[in-house]
Design goal:
Elements: H1 3-17, E1 19-21, E2 24-27, H2 31-51, H3 53-73, H4 76-79, E3 82-83, E4 86-87, H5 88-94, H6 112-135
Antiparallel strand pairs: 1-2, 3-4
Helix pairs in contact: 1-2, 1-6, 2-3, 3-6
């Protein structure tokens, strides 16, 4: 396994347990909502490790779909006030007590946890593509 895949697993595990720093949430516990996603990721990692090329293709597909979903559920709101999860005001309210790198009044911007998650997913996609190219 590559570094980005392992880092993504560790980072996403925080979503299962929740992690609070100084009264602000890096990420609240979301096992109920995202536990299935963790299981899918672990199964795809196992497939990639034991099955080889076909498993890596399955992992790449899973990561790509996950990245698209994450971008639609977070970064989409940078450009549009409405999206798959309602309006931007609802997102601002829902994530009001999370650690943020940037804040703009009245505008939803992803928090630190989600920015890092999205970078790790993208890095993992790139890593799997490189693995597939090497094994071709």
């Amino acid at each position: 396994m590559t570094v980005p895949l392992i880092l993504l697993l560790i980072w996403f595990a925080l979503d299962m347990t929740g992690f609070e720093i100084g009264g602000k949430w890096l990420v609240e516990t979301a096992f109920k909502d995202d536990g299935y996603r963790m299981c899918i990721y672990i199964v795809c990692l196992i497939l990639a490790y034991f099955i080889g090329r076909v498993g890596k293709i399955v992992l790449l597909g899973q990561l790509s779909i996950w990245l698209i979903i994450r971008l639609l559920c977070h970064e989409w709101y940078l450009f549009f006030d409405k999206g798959p999860m309602g309006d931007a005001n609802g997102k601002i309210e829902y994530f009001r007590n999370t650690i943020k790198l940037f804040e703009i009044e009245g505008r939803y911007l992803p928090d630190l946890y989600h920015i890092t998650l999205h970078i790790l997913i993208l890095w993992s996609v790139i890593s799997v593509v490189k693995m597939l190219r090497r094994s071709a």
